[in-house]
Design a protein that fits this description.
Number of helices: 18
Number of strands: 11
Radius of gyration: 27 Å
Largest sheet: 9 strands, mixed
Strand order of the largest sheet: 5-4-6-7-3-8-9-10-11
Amino acid sequence: MIQEQVLNKIIQEKDASIITLNNLTDSYFSDYKDEFWFIKNHLTKYSVIPDMETFLSAFPDFQVITVNEPVNYLLEELMKDKNKRFLAENYTKVRQLIMENRVDEALQILKEASEESASFISLQCVDILRDTSRYDAYVEKIDNYDKYFIKTGFAELDQILGGWDVNEELGTIVARNGLGKSWVLFKCAAAAAEQGKNVGIYSGEMSENKVGYRIDTIIGHLSNGAIVHGSGSVKNEYRRFLDNLADRVPGSIKILTPKMINGPAGVSALRAFIEKENLDILFIDQHSLLEDDRKAKNPVETERILAKDLKLLQVVKRIPIISVCQQNREKLEEGKTFDTTQLAQSDRIAQDSTVIIFIERKDDLMRLHLVKSRDTENGKVLTYKVDLNTGSWIFVPDDKASEEVMQDSGYSEDEVF
């Protein structure tokens, strides 16, 4: 019935935009393919929708009905109709594969069908010269920061970025091995939990205890070396810290490791993690330790697919996803600065990321290079004196730009350190 309604609406109102602006194809009109193509060909050849009389001369049995429903409603119902048919067809395939014990193939078809069906949406435009509702959103950002941003854990970085965008952030932290990128990731995770957020960490390498020890060090400034190596010097202090931790941190930090799911996580597993635990933000340590659900044959293609799937996951679930990525092995030439070409394996990661931060570290000085930021100026460099054993980062305003960032940040000393 809905297919018939839409065709009647198109002809009655002679509105070509219903077809052209919504990319309607004959797949939406399974019961009226010939009728659809008659209208489409007439539009292509003569640049107008045919009159009802012309249409009926070709299809005399077509039922003419008056359609008063708005176009938006009709399109939504048309999309639902296509989704039902599309999913039913794929579920039939999945059922057959399961009966044949081809479970991996069934899961892949189900995943691809779910992703494709999510793309069946009608196009809804907004005239930004007349619709000024974005001003209300701007005012709400002023009055309700937490609704739009999650603080990163670095006050100076928040002054530049505003924080992690709660709906549209796909952040990437990049460094070579041993420079502290996981520490930076976990500091961001701890900060989110301290803001009352439900935080998820996928740790592809470290156990939940190792991650927990680092989080404890970052929040409580306890000696990580003493905890990891079982030194009794912090035993009583550590016990007191853990007894008060749940009261001190209003949020939660959920850890997922390969051991818990019998192998490396793919993006489908990360989606399940987000949905099961109702996460507000997801941190991934690290990109190269994820598994490609599509089983690509080479590392570059794997990274490309993972980047694309992570971007889709972020768009669909609308939570920030922050991951760690390896820097390639090429030595940075004298006088050159970091750029997105130094991301290992795939430039797709750089393309899809909204924020990219490179880490440079020498002795006890760590620099965060803001190489890419969609909503602010790139190229900022923040320097910190770090002691990873006690989980401390002290900002060092080593140039004018850094001093400007620090001014009027609105953070207390506790929030900075």
